[in-house]
Amino acid sequence: SENTLCPSPGAMSQAVAKEIPQEQGEGGSRRSSWGLLVTAGVGGTLVALYAVATPFVTPALRKVCLPFVPATAAQIQNVLKMLENRSGSLVDIGSGDGRIVIAAAKKGFQAVGYELNPWLVWYSRYRAWRDGVHQNTKFYISDLWKVSFSHYTNVVVFGVPQMMPQLEKKLEDELECNARIIACRFPFPCWIPDHTAGEGIDTVWAYDLKRSRGCETKSLEITPETES
């Protein structure tokens, strides 16, 4: 009958009263879930940005700042010009994204780069592999002040004025007399360059340490024996 199929008004009101809190509870639960997802997403993004940015920002907080500024095509060519007729090992101090090291390796040098930023080191290794010179290149994550460059005969430096006096002394103490140091963008304060190439920001200065240090290669003098 109709009485058994249709609920009474009182029953309907009770049913509606039960449904409303349930729907509100489900909506609140959904909003809470979305809020947690948004919070986690924002937090993860901030952590990722911190991980990426820290290696770039940290050098700027050091006493001597050595920021990453990519070498121009003209600078690379000028560096290679200063390496003509040179042999031996090569090191790039503050190698950045590895373009100087890779260019030198393509010219036959066993080239090494030291860079404090791990992201740039990993990218340099990838570029060396991509360009087919990974067997002639090595890249290290290291602070230049904690490395000895004594076994290198060719040194490339992309420095800033604040660090050049201290680096000049370090290289003079560590390198052999046959070493050549190539400075890009900023010259060394005391040494007199033996060669220069380029102009403006693309200028490079080459210093032969045997002259800058005053070293002279002396031939052995053979004194003939006197007959008694």
TrEMBL record:
Keyword flag Amino-acid biosynthesis: no
Protein localization: Mitochondrion membrane
Topology of this chain in the membrane: Single-pass membrane protein
Keywords, ordered alphabetically: Membrane, Methyltransferase, Mitochondrion, S-adenosyl-L-methionine, Transferase, Transmembrane, Transmembrane helix
The keyword Chloroplast belongs to this UniProt entry's keyword annotation: no
Gene Ontology cellular component annotations, sorted alphabetically: mitochondrial membrane
Subcellular location, principal: mitochondrion
InterPro entries: FAM173A/B, SAM-dependent_MTases_sf
Superkingdom of this protein's organism: Eukaryota
Single Gene Ontology BP annotation: regulation of mitochondrial ATP synthesis coupled proton transport
Annotated transmembrane regions: 34-53
One of the record's GO molecular function terms: protein-lysine N-methyltransferase activity
PANTHER family in the record: ATP SYNTHASE SUBUNIT C LYSINE N-METHYLTRANSFERASE, METHYLTRANSFERASE DOMAIN-CONTAINING PROTEIN
Family (UniProt): Belongs to the ANT/ATPSC lysine N-methyltransferase family.
Protein's recorded name: ATP synthase subunit C lysine N-methyltransferase
Native organism: Struthidea cinerea
